[in-house]
Amino acid sequence: MAGEPQPDCLFCKIVSGEIPATIVRETDTTVAFRDINPQAPTHVLVIPRAHHPDAASLAAAEPQILADVLAETGRVAADEKVDGTGYRVVFNTGAGAGQTVFHAHAHVLGGRGLQWPPG
After folding, report:
1. Of 51, 52, 103, 105, which residue is the catalytic one?
2. Least enclosed by CB within 10 Å: which of 22, 37, 76, 80?
């Protein structure tokens, strides 16, 4: 069921503390942690504590939590000191877009030049 922890979800296991992660921020509705395969000097994932398979599903079911995720991306950027030089927020939605963990999440990338269009 949407919003409920899923036993086979890596990010749900991070939220529950079952799997360790390098947590950089936590709120009542979100958790932010370092990506284990960083694509930039700053690469932090911001996830909702509630399980939703992707950003579109999260937006439809709980728009305020999606807003919380997005607000946290800005706070992560400020904490990581990339807010002044620029950073990118990416939501991959679906396997064809590169989503590999089907729990909604935003990537916060910064600390290097980020070209456009992305790869």
Report:
1. 105
2. 37
